[in-house]
Structure formats: structure tokens, C-alpha cells
Amino acid sequence: MARQKKNLNEMSFLDHLEELRWLLVRCSAGILIGGVVAYYFSDFIIDTIILGPKKGDFITYQFFCDLANTYNLDKSFCNTEMPFTLRNGDMEGQFSLLVWTCITAGLIISFPYILLQFWNFISPALYKKEKKNAIKFIVISSLLFFLGVGFGYFIITPLSVNFLANFTISKEIENIIDMNSYIGLVKTTSLATGLIFELPVIMYFLSQIGIVTPSFLREYRKWAYVIILILAAIVTPPDVISQIIVTIPLVILYEISIFISAAIYKKNNPITP
């Protein structure tokens, strides 16, 4: 049934809830359709993408192995086999993993569509000039998200898998990893990094409404760098090169956020020096 579009000022609280409900319905439908598409390619997604970091010939391991051989660094990435096996301990385990993997892939696939729905939801509250930025917002946000997912999958995930798989406190202990634990690491790391890469967009909106200022970001820059270095040290093996590779993009994102916040602040306060 077609719903009559009301003026923003005429909408009651219940009308806003109704709009929010339809927003969630459309986003869920987008994820579901993306999940169906992912199911069609489920063999490739699971065998090649999900289980890729478990294989010793994964592209990231080959890159770091060549780097280690060139500069005489830690050669743990040159292992041809990962010292662990995956197990499924539940009767419905593999079916549940398939469903949730398809849903996660559907979320990634439909991310631009979800952004479009959120933009349509907030656009009535924006000025006419701001509404024209819809395509720019969706393209930039989607690009940052996909870059983040790729960085999480190709860099952070294999670094974490390699380190945790080779870490041992005793040779008597054999690593038999639960499938849920492994796939959870891959999915969580990739999605979390994708959202972290949205930092410049988030800072743009926070700066627009005055919650964040460039002086605030500059003042706490050192603390931000410390947190980034700690995160890099946690998710990477104990070698400097790996930590630098993870740290640099996050530092760049933070600096871009400062630049964006400064531009917004200058635009909103043209008289202030």
C-alpha cells in the first residue's frame, strides 16, 4: 500500500516510528536479497574466501614471506600449512554457519543500499544544498566501507590467524579450533574494520552538529595514536613491519578526520580565526 508522504514538521512521534519501521524493513529486505545472492556463490565464499586465511598459500602470507626473505625478518609467514584443524561440534552447526555467512555477505553486498535508505530517512531534516550530496555520501561511505572490509580481510585477519595458529604454550597441546570461532574471527574482523574506516564520515557529521572540533581531535591525537598502536600490537605478530602496516592506514584515517573537522569548523565559523 502506498503511504502518503507527510511534511517533516507535520509528522508526529508515531509517524517517525512508522518511517523507522519501514526503514528497517527495507534494510532487512536488502540484506535478505544480498544473502540469497551470496547463497548462490556459497561454495566460493566459504572455500575460497572464508577458509582462504587458513591456507599457507594465501596471498597475504606469500607477500609477507617475500618481504621477510628480502629484509631478513621473521619468516613465520612462510609456513605452507597452518598447525590447526577446524571442527564442527553441533548437529546443526554447518547449516547455521551457512545461514549466518550468507547473511553477513548479504550485509556487505547491500551496504550501499542500506546507506541510501538511511539517507532518505534523514534527508527531510537537511537543507536543500545538503540533500544534493546524497550520491557523494553514498559513494564515499561505501568505498571506505569496502576498503575497510578488504583491509580487515587481507591484512588483519591473516595476521591474527597466523599468529594465533602458531602460538603455543606447550607442544603437547593440539589446536583443534571450533568452526564458529574461526569464522567469527574472519567476519568480526572484516566488518569491524569496515566500520572503523567510516571514521572520516562519522567525524564529518559530528563536526557538522558541533560535537567534535578540530582542536579536540588535535589535543587527543597522542592518545589516539597510543590506542592505535595498542590495537596494532594486539592483532599482529610481534614484529615491527606487521605493526606498521596495520598502524599507517588507521593514522591516516585519523588525520583525514582532523582535516575534515577543520574544514567544517571553518565553514560554520567563517569569522573565527
TrEMBL record:
Superkingdom is Bacteria
Does the UniProt entry include the keyword Ribonucleoprotein?
no
Descriptive protein name? Sec-independent protein translocase protein TatC
Residue spans crossing the bilayer: 20-41, 97-122, 134-156, 191-211, 223-238, 244-265
Task: Report the membrane topology from the UniProt record.
Answer: Multi-pass membrane protein
Q: Which Pfam families match?
A: TatC (PF00902)
Task: Summarize the subunit comment.
Answer: Forms a complex with TatA.
- Keyword Transmembrane part of the UniProt annotation: yes
What keywords tag this UniProt record? Answer: Cell membrane, Membrane, Protein transport, Translocation, Transmembrane, Transmembrane helix, Transport
| Family matches, as InterPro entries | TatC
The record's family statement is: Belongs to the TatC family.
Q: What does this protein do?
A: Part of the twin-arginine translocation (Tat) system that transports large folded proteins containing a characteristic twin-arginine motif in their signal peptide across membranes.
Location relative to the cell: Cell membrane; Membrane
Q: Which organism is it from?
A: Flavobacterium nakdongensis
